[in-house]
Each structure stands twice: as structure tokens, then as C-alpha cells.
Fold each of these.
Amino acid sequence: MRSDDDSWDITTSVGSTALFVAASRALEAKKPDPLAVDPYAEIFCRAAGGDWADLVDGGAPEHVLRTEFGEQFVNFQGARTRYFDDYFTRVMTAGVRQIVLLAAGLDSRAYRLPWPGGTTVFEIDQPRVLEFKREVLAAAGAPPTAPRREVAVDLRDDWPAALVGAGFDPVRPSAWIAEGLLIYLPATAQESLFDAIDALAAVGSWLGVEEATPMPAEAFAAKRDEERAAGAEQSFFTLVYNEQHAPADVWFGARGWSADVTPLADHLERLGRPVALADPQSEAMIRAESLVTAVKK
Ligand SMILES: C[S@@+](CC[C@H](N)C(=O)[O-])C[C@H]1O[C@@H](n2cnc3c(N)ncnc32)[C@H](O)[C@@H]1O
């Protein structure tokens, strides 16, 4: 179970979810028609070893990413990566040069996007997660494409002070991303996060958020029990909170931001990936998800 001050490395607890989505990006990149190519995702999986490495070599037949659910999860990650890569292209065109990756995990955008001169990328996550990324990519001889500042702090602590301490300037516009994050925070921490982003974002700032409508409480409890009964070593349903403080477009829309919501299902359909699925759990996951972009006016 989670606690208010729990911590992790890349293979344990919430940290392992960063590997899970990186492995999904690696599998997407291997398709003949990938929605997005993150060349570093495979490198992270190989460095982690075990099932993660086997997965990218076509093995690990028992891994959840090999199930029908996993197949759709890989589509989801491909679509999500594409959406937020496009978001950052628009951010660059808009002239924003301060980037904040909240819960950066193994997001490799600081290493693979063509950041214009003058850009700084701030990455916030727990220390051991950021350390794994830095060491693996340094060993692979892959330098960041913009100055990268690690802000090794928990997002339930005073991360705004740490971010400013790392050189972030609240007077200049910034662009933020919360991708694969909100489900790991209780509603109170989501509210503090939104408050802090709004306080630190100058006019002209951008925000990208991935969010999910919570499951009905009974269905969520049943999934949690099911995973426990199956003896899962790491249980997704014990890592997430199934809470939503407020939909991002509504919350930021009420504070002077102009927000645009794209249901993940619409995005997948446009990209030619399936939405109506045989597995109801996979379809429910897709239909609960939204991708949001907002600009502070
Ligand atoms: C599913 S991964 C997503 C990583 C990355 N945003 C991506 O999409 O590839 C979740 C990440 O959230 C980070 N995270 C979750 N809760 C956090 C917290 N309270 N403080 C700092 N990082 C947190 C984890 O360490 C992990 O890297």
C-alpha cells in the first residue's frame, strides 16, 4: 500500500511504472507504423534487465504487456507520446524556453526533441529515478539536446522551492507536462500541484495534462482485491489513488487558462488505432482517459 512519504527506485513501487510506460514506448517503436519513436525507451529496458530486457527482445510471454490489455496499453502510450510530442512542437514555436517535466520518469524528451537554443528542461521526480535515467543515457553516449536540470524532489513536498532553486524563473513563460502522473497522487496533492503550477506560470505559459476519470469505487476495490488474490508482485491498483480533484480544463479554465480537451478515444481513432475492444477493461481504460492542453492568457 502507499503512504504519504513513500519512496522508490526504478524497479520498485511507483518507480516501476516509469519502466512500464518506457517498455510500452519501446514496443510501439518496433511496429512497422509507430505512432511515436522514442529510441531511448529500449535502452532503459535493456539497462533494467530481466523481463524488461526480454520484452524488447520479443520474450517475456507472461508479461502483462503481452496480453490484450497490454497491446492496447502500448497503443495508448504511442498515442499519448505523439500527442505530447506535438504539444512540445507548438510550445517551441510559441517561443517558450522553460520546460518542466513533472514526474519525468523515463521521459526522454530532454534528450530527443530538437529544443531551440536558450531552452532549459527541468525534470522533477524522485532522486533514484532521475539518477537511473542520467546514468543509463550517459553510458549510452546520449547527451541531452538542451541544458537539463534535475530537480530531485517528491511532488508531495515543497517542489516549487526546489524548482526555483534549480534556476526556474517564474517571471518568464514556461511549459509544463503532467503525463502519467495524476493517478499516483491523492486529490489533495493534485490540488496543491495545480495551485503551484498556476502560481509559477507566467502569462503565455503552456500546460499538457493526461488525466483519467476515476473508476466507480466498487469496481476499483474489486480490481484491487483481484490483483491481491492473484498474488501480483507489484499491483497497479495499490499504487494508484483513483481520485480526481478536478478536471484540468475546468480548473485551469476558471483561472484564466484556455484549455482544450481531447478524449483519448478520439485521438486513437484519428490515428487509426482501435477503440472498441473485446476486452472490456482495456476499452474502459481508453474511454476514461483525456489529453489536455492549456495556455495561460
Ligand atoms: C507512469 S510514470 C510516468 C513517467 C513519465 N511522465 C512518462 O510518461 O514516461 C510515473 C512517474 O511518476 C513519478 N511520481 C509519482 N508520484 C510522484 C511523486 N509524488 N513525486 C515525484 N515523482 C512521482 C514516478 O517516480 C514515475 O517516474
Amino acid sequence: MQKKPRIAVIGAGLGGAAAAALLEQAGFNVRVYEQAPAFSRLGAGIHLGPNVMKVMRSIGIEDELNRTGSHPDYWYSRDWKTGEIIAQIPLGDYALSHYGSSYLTVHRGDFHSLMIDAIPDHILSFNKRLNKVEDLGDVVRLHFTDGTSEEADIVIGADGVNSKIRDHLLSAEPPKYTGYVGHRAVFPISAVKGFTHDLCTKWWSDDRHMMVYFVTQKKDEIYYVTGVPEASWDMSKSWVPSSREEMLGAFDGWHTGVQSLIEASENVTKWPLLERDPLPLWSRGRLVLLGDACHPMKPHMAQGAAMAIEDAAMLVRCFKEVGIDDHQTAFALYEANRTARASKVQLVSHNNTWLRTNENPDWCFAYDVFNVPLVEPSSVLGAA
Ligand SMILES: Cc1cc2nc3c(=O)[nH]c(=O)nc-3n(C[C@H](O)[C@H](O)[C@H](O)COP(=O)(O)OP(=O)(O)OC[C@H]3O[C@@H](n4cnc5c(N)ncnc54)[C@H](O)[C@@H]3O)c2cc1C
């Protein structure tokens, strides 16, 4: 009997975990290798739009997420100084009836932990940091820093913005620092004095912003993430500690609502916002990329992880459509059906215009990766 092709997923972040859960569910032979020794409840929140929640339904964690996260009634955009509402985008019940799934904001650690729980333990290995790839033609050999190696027939690079798989396919090149940082803080709402916050608000000035939302169903924890210009970044660091004092300087003169959050935040971290130009290829031979490994973006549409998760779902759909033995056709179909959308989201995120005015977000939120009509690779090439 012919053996099932072995699929290795490098990285168990949000994209890799989604790929692993969906591949396992579809009966493929999959293993996941993650460099971290374990995952902790990192101090960050995340938006899960209806486009992502449809994938969560398929993975089987939609109901639990709906019980875990906050369901904002609106996305409010407000002026930094006056607090005036400059846009109000309906979410809540409207999202559920209009898009067929909820719009959630949730603690990133809680979300990731549900995703990891959806993967059987025996297919996930922690403490496996990939440091070398050997493509031998009929098989790929993966070498890890602990001195071990594994073989696979197909390798999915879900290893984030500094992807080793991307480096192997193209050449080692660091991502671009955009000249912006994001400060992040999560804290109990009980610490916030003097202002009643909406469930989800982005405060805007011309050169910076603060996105604020609750991360639990109980609304006992609130989160902010900023976008603030900063000339340079030491690329050897993925984040550094920040402080209330630094935040007070960066948001001097801003509305009382923003000040109330800064006053309440004990632990603030600061992250570089990184990007890459669209890659000339997403796959070669037996290797394929997804998520931040191929299209890292500024987080200003709150859709970076969503794109990684949609990529994962589309890749699995293409394996099923074409058959796993013809992986190169599956890769071409996958790329043809993901590049335009990922590049558009990358561009809008770069420009930081999303929902600043009362625009219609349907093109983003209504996307259903399982039912969107597939385009053929040749029609994409022909159109180029
Ligand atoms: C400040 C900030 C705020 C953000 N807010 C949002 C938001 O609200 N909504 C949203 O959708 N997105 C947001 N994003 C973007 C989002 O975090 C990323 O787009 C998303 O995490 C990409 O998922 P991924 O699985 O591709 O990569 P990652 O989540 O980076 O996962 C990669 C995984 O691979 C592992 N790995 C790396 N190298 C190796 C190796 N050599 N061997 C083995 N394992 C390896 C890593 O440990 C990690 O677990 C934000 C980003 C930032 C910086």
C-alpha cells in the first residue's frame, strides 16, 4: 500500500496551527514543529472578523470562542482631541446576520490556546527550531538546532516574519522596518478611572493612533495597541519594554479617554511594525509559504493573522481539490487564489485608512475561504 505523503508544518503560530488542525481533520499525515518550548498568555489582543470565524467553525472552536471573546456592537473611530465619532461601523448582531458569523475581539493567548488544543498532542513537537533545509528532490530533510532531523514530502513554512523557509526559497533578507512601532498593554478595566470606554474604538490623529478594545466576554480586561512613528529599530530585538511615561509623551494632549488608559497600564511593551514587498514566489518544489512568512504587514486592518488563517484554509482546500500527490498544481492553485487578496490587505494596512471613515467593509469581512469561487492559475497568469 502506498504511504500517505508526510506534511511538515514549520511553526505553530496562528497560521501554522490552523493549517495543522485542518490538515489533520481532512485525514492528511501532518506533523508540526515549533521552536518555542511552550506558549504563554502574551499581553495582546486580536480581532477575529467573520472571515476568520468561518474557519474557526470548521476547526470546531467557534462556539467556545463566542463564549470567550467580546462582541463589539460597533467599531468606532474617534478624533484624538475632541473624541468626536468620525466613523461607526456596525458589528455585533449586524455582523452575525449580514456575514453569517460573529465579529469578536479576544485575548490573543486565549485564542491561540484554543487553536493549539484543536491539534492532537502527538502531531505537535515543541522545542524544534528549524535551522537548515535540504531539498533532495524526492524528499525534504529538515534540520533542527537540537541536532535532530526529520524528512517530509511537503513542507509548509508558517514560521513567521523571519521565516527560514522563505530564506531557503529566496535568500536570507530581513523584513523592512516601517518606521512605526506598536505599544501593547492589557489590564483590568477596574484600573481605568474617569472614562467609560466603548467595546471597540480606534482613536486617530494624522500621524498616530490607538486601537482599544475589550478582550473577554466578561469585559473585565481591556487592551490597547498603538501605531506611533519612531525613526529606527534594533532588528536584533522582536520587542522591548515600554512604560507609562513613554506613552504619556507619545500621546501628550490626547483626549481624556486615551489618558485614562495610559494611566491604568502597568506593563507596556513596544513592537516594531515590519513589512515585506510582495514575494516573487510563494512556493518551489516541495516547499510552500503562508502567513507572515510570505506577506507580513502593518497590523492596521487587524487582519494579519486572519490572512495567515485564510491562507491555511485555502491551501488545505487546494490539496483536497487537486489531490495531495500533485502538490505543485495545488501550490499554484493556492497562490492564484491568495495573492490578490493578501496584497490588497497588505496595501490597505500599510496606508492605515481602514474604517477611518464610514466605508463598507464587506469585501474583507464577507470573504468565505471555503466557498469563494476558485480562479485557475492560468487565468491569473493570463491577466498579468
Ligand atoms: C503590534 C501588533 C499587533 C497585531 N494585531 C493584530 C490583530 O489585531 N489582528 C490580526 O489579525 N493580526 C494582528 N497582528 C499581526 C499578526 O500577529 C500576524 O500577522 C500573525 O501572527 C501571523 O501569523 P503566522 O502564523 O504567519 O506567524 P506567527 O504568529 O509569527 O507564528 C510563527 C510561529 O513560527 C515559529 N517559528 C519561527 N521560526 C521558527 C523556526 N525556525 N523553527 C520552528 N518554529 C519557528 C514561531 O515561534 C511562531 O510560533 C499584529 C501584529 C503586531 C506586531
